[in-house]
């Protein structure tokens, strides 16, 4: 097993046969010295909330790129985000951000999400054919995260490509020299833009998340300028890239299972269950990485201290030891408290509630307002060449 096994055309098209092999191979499958994969639900479910597992971001990057990774702007930017932090720094910053993502605040965005969804559908109506990725799945979460950050939507669109390039640095398989150079340029462009945004909010604070990060203080300490900029970039990127891919994957899954699609159309009240099942069946974020800070006994094996573990969430969500008929889409499947789509433990996805709300609104309105919608390129999908963030380039819908 080697890193390049996760960047083959077959893997991008359909990673699930590969995941079957990983689960059968054992609880932990060696990938490089001190680096391993796991795709078993029981193992990942046990390790994610374990406080003895944490983040050592740069060592995991060095394992793939070598020591020169320390000098790459994209990896330096990502290392400064709360996503890569451990307590107590992570605890302090996450507590602040949770104020913007709690249930009450998310509900205040429901009307905005509904109005945005209706507006995008209005723009598509009357057309014979649309690209649901560029005309619906991408702009919907982008407009909402721009509202949270108090950014002009046009500015958000302008930096959408840079955000996609930055996300590519999360991939397990190393980027080519050209792709890494593009990711570095994207990181620098985003840092320059959001650095200017932070400067503006210092001069004229508002009620947005950027202003909240600037004003945050804990124990007499404030976030550095670089930390603020990096975390605003993370929120911008994560706030639309993951949700847009989840929406596209959900539409593909439902249209490839027409009986399930018709069931949802007949009973829209099933939309929350349908979203949860689609998120299990083909999630956008396919893997996360953790490091063992101590020797840990799990699933009958000992994980040695210092081991870097890439946890395949997409594999865990299809583990037959956890889910009955895991390769079958069933929107009436009993809800599971152990779905790993959004991770678990202290790093559980901050925007999970917002993402699920957006997905539910999007699917419900598509079902009711465009009941004749059908996808015409299901047999010729171009999947993005990413082994971490799964999604398609285009999704053609006939209206």
Which features does this protein show?
alpha+beta, 399 residues, three-stranded antiparallel beta sheet, Cytochrome p450
Description:
Strand 5 (217-218) and strand 6 form a beta hairpin. The model has no long low-confidence stretch (mean pLDDT 91). By secondary structure, the chain is an alpha+beta fold. It has a 5-stranded mixed beta sheet, with helices on both faces. A 3-stranded antiparallel beta sheet has the order 4-12-11. Strands 5-6 form a two-stranded antiparallel ribbon. Helices cover 52% and strands 10% of the residues. It has one domain (3-398): Cytochrome p450 (Orthogonal Bundle), CATH 1.10.630. Helix 8 (110-124) runs antiparallel to helix 10 (139-149) and helix 15 runs parallel beside helix 19 (352-369).
